[in-house]
Q: What sequence folds into this?
């Protein structure tokens, strides 16, 4: 109907073309307005053809004749235009000067009401004022559409970013599991060897001429403990390998958290000749969080400490735990001399790593930092410690 391009810089100037839709039973007024005011670009339509002829999206103003005989149906037509575009200025012209009908028109959304017999200059002035408002409104509407599109694009990017972060977290976890594969095999093979030995011992007891009942019960008890150990490892492995980002928060025992995490890596650390120093953990100490994610943080830090301690003559890794009224602090320390300041500034950057190629992903620390922030905690480096010490700070549950 009209060109959709708007001159947004000149919307207040009368020289700017105004797109006016006119719905009249006769073209007389439309032609008169256009001849006197060439800045008005007029599109004419009859009442019967308005639905297909009028494009409200390109109108700055709609002037509609409310015929005396068809006043209510014409007013319904005006309402339908406002349904299609609520901010469209409607200028009603009618020879019906009934006050109640005028009030009804204003309540319906009409912004101006004049008789077609009024002075043409007054009609033009009122039309110009409304058309200027309509053009400004169209500018805002177009900007709103563009803004909504931008917001949708940003939302889509945020969703994609979130999905990518979840994938990176899972891939980092899988990389840690890959590094631990050999250790896990050892963790399981050791108790399996013990279990086989107990089975042989039980066979000798049961095949003896006079089976020793108490001795058999003792062996069964030890076999049960070993099988529980294997079950604990496999259960922890299954839990750790799943994506737990959407899991609800739950109560976590710090003692259980440390024990379950060490099930993955303790043997591997000791196999490298590294002394593992673990403080006594208060069994009542608890936090709230996602167990899989917090365990991932602890495992990342222990893996880093193991890789660092392996390179020094004095090899040890320690786990120390402190708490106050509000927070629990888990301190993972290795025998290294600490990190230089220039590395401390970079270690939380994704993909930054000081490990050899194929040894680390460079994602463990930034992911751990993000996980702890989501838990209301933080990951810091204890610069005052003479060795390399990472500190996990996480809110404590009361009790």
A:
């Amino acid at each position: 109907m009209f060109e959709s391009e708007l001159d947004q810089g000149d919307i207040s100037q009368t020289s700017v073309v105004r797109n006016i839709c006119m719905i009249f039973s006769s073209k007389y007024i439309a032609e008169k307005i256009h001849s006197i005011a060439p800045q008005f670009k007029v599109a004419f339509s009859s009442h019967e053809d308005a639905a297909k002829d009028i494009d409200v999206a390109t109108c700055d103003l709609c002037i509609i004749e409310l015929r005396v005989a068809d006043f209510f149906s014409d007013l319904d037509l005006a309402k339908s235009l406002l349904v299609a575009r609520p901010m469209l200025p409607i200028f009603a012209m009618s020879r019906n000067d009934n006050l109640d009908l005028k009030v009804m028109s204003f309540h319906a959304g009409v912004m101006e009401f004049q008789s077609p017999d009024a002075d043409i200059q007054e009609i033009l002035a009122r039309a110009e004022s409304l058309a200027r408002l309509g053009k400004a409104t169209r500018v805002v509407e177009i900007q709103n559409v563009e803004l909504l599109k931008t917001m949708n694009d940003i939302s889509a990017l945020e969703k994609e970013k979130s999905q990518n972060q979840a994938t990176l977290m899972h891939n980092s976890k899988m990389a840690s599991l890959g590094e631990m594969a050999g250790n896990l095999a050892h963790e399981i093979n050791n108790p399996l060897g013990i279990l086989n030995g107990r089975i042989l011992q039980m066979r000798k007891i049961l095949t003896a001429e006079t089976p020793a009942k108490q001795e058999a019960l003792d062996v069964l008890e030890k076999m049960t403990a070993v099988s529980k150990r294997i079950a604990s490892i496999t259960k922890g492995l299954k839990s750790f390998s799943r994506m737990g980002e959407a899991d609800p928060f739950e109560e976590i025992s710090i003692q259980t958290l440390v024990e379950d995490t060490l099930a993955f890596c303790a043997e591997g650390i000791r196999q490298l000749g590294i002394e593992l120093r673990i403080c006594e953990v208060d069994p009542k100490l608890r936090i709230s969080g996602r167990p899989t994610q917090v365990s991932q943080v602890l495992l990342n830090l222990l893996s880093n400490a193991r890789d660092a301690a392996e390179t020094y003559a004095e090899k040890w890794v320690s786990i120390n735990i402190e708490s106050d009224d509000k927070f629990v602090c888990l301190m993972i320390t290795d025998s290294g001399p600490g990190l230089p300041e220039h590395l401390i500034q970079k270690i939380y950057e994704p993909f930054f790593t000081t490990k050899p190629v194929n040894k680390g992903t460079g994602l463990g620390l930034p992911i751990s930092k993000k996980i702890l922030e989501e838990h209301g905690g933080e990951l810091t480096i204890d610069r005052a410690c003479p060795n390399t010490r990472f500190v996990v700070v996480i809110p404590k549950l009361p009790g």
Observations:
- The domain at 15-118 is CATH 3.40.50.2300 (Rossmann fold).
- Residues 2-14 have pLDDT under 50 and may be disordered.
- The chain is about 50% helix and 15% strand.
- The two ends are 73 Å apart (CA to CA).
